Amino acid sequence: KYxxxxxxxxxxxxxxxLTTFSANNVEGKVELNWTxxxxxxxxxxxxxxxxxxxxxxxxxxxxxxxxxxxxIGFVKGSGNSNSPKSYSFTDATPPSGKVQYRLKQIxxxxxxxxxxxxxxxxxxxxxxxxxxxxxxPFNPTTTIQYALPKQSKVELKVYNILGEEVATLVNGQMSxxxxxxxxxxxxxxxxIYFYRISAGKFNEIKKxxxxx
Length: 212
Known about the structure:
Blueprint: H1 2-7, E1 16-26, E2 29-51, E3 70-81, E4 85-91, E5 97-107, E6 112-114, E7 118-122, E8 129-130, E9 141-148, E10 152-160, E11 165-174, E12 177-184, E13 191-199, E14 202-210
Antiparallel strand pairs: 1-2, 2-3, 2-4, 2-5, 5-6, 5-7, 8-9, 9-12, 10-11, 10-13, 13-14
């Protein structure tokens, strides 16, 4: 009964027993994770997202009922199962601000039920930035982070002390948000290197030190 009340299931039968549902911010993305205890005729889960409009719900309405939900993905279910199953979905481009998520669990016959909602807060960076790599000095891998306030064509390259390019880490369109890349210098000699980012009109160079 607890699960039925919590997840809005009015029948005495639990065709899909959802036990957990969570949302976590990870490197500028939102990772959704959920588990089921048992499943009967489970076609899958439609992932829905609702942004916080900032409007107060009408009298007698909950904030959930007043929300505008949109489908952002689908994860196939396990059909019939008597053992716990784990699922995940990543929202790679969450909007800025408070965001709600819910699952629309769909049976093979087309009937469906909604899960409870979970919330995540995501604030996009307000300016371009390039962080100092860590660890530094390093051997042989290090992590470089950068931030984009809007979608941009990004080039992130590494150069030796003579100004010669030794590695291209990023070369393409990247979404707004926080990003990171791991640089493996296993094939390079110890010494001082520089990494340079170019994103629109933003350019910045920082130094890294490889010690083997």
